[in-house]
Amino acid sequence: MRSLELALQGAGKVLLASLVFGAGLPVVYALAMRALTLGSTSTIGADGSVRRHQSALGRLVAGVLVLLVLGAIVLGLMLIVASGFGKAVSFEHVIPTIVDKK
Question: Membrane-spanning regions, if any (predicted)?
């Protein structure tokens, strides 16, 4: 009975990690695209054309969120490449660096 409990705990951890890492980045990207509409305005010209003007705050928030997504992608690739070469990624000095495994 104890092994079933341990298996369910492990499955719960895997489910949580998949939600955080699998769905987390698309959600952040979607929030970045939504941030582009913050404070945006639309004007209709005399010829019937519609022009949309984005606010500076919306562009700033969207840019920060997209940079966060790109940073996570680069970090993930860095982890995969480092493990392929038999190395590890260290966060000892805040900036991730590839080091030899201990």
Answer: 14-36, 57-82
